[in-house]
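Bug #2210: token dump truncated for ABC transporter ATP-binding protein?
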Amino acid sequence: MEVEPLPHGVSSSKVIGLLEYLDDHHGKEDIYKLAEAIHYELGELLAVIKMAEMLGLVETPGGDVVLTDLGRKILKSKVAQRKLIIREQLKKLKIFQHLIETLQKSEEGRLSRDVVLEELARLYPHENAEVLFKTIVNWGRYAELLGYNPDTQTLYLDEESFPARPQ
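Reproduced locally. Full output below:
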């Protein structure tokens, strides 16, 4: 299965910040001007843009970053609605689809951190599984799609998004 990894270390606040900047600049900016204006290293900016693009919030035609209608909708939404939109977009990403399916098939709807790390290392042998795990957990928690218990080191589906299964 070809599953594209998430850009490392990109938070929801960085993506929202990118959307706000674009909105303030008529919804479009050249990537290099954008890097200079917001004082990001190009690599960091490209990771933020990639995450926003994976979520369908921006497009990148010909060296520009362009706000999509969904990106504009996010900006006009309250926090709860933003989380719902992001949740639905995350569900479209193959890595989240794979994790959701794996969690749903697991006996208790939970996976240990070690099992998830092994799976990430298998799917992405050239990526840092630990960093990718943290990125997935952060986005999953933000969107109230996934939960993570650091005490038991288990990943689980958020009960609000996935009601309990019948016994």
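Output looks complete on our side. The chain is about 55% helix and 10% strand. Marking as cannot-reproduce; reopen if the truncation happens again.
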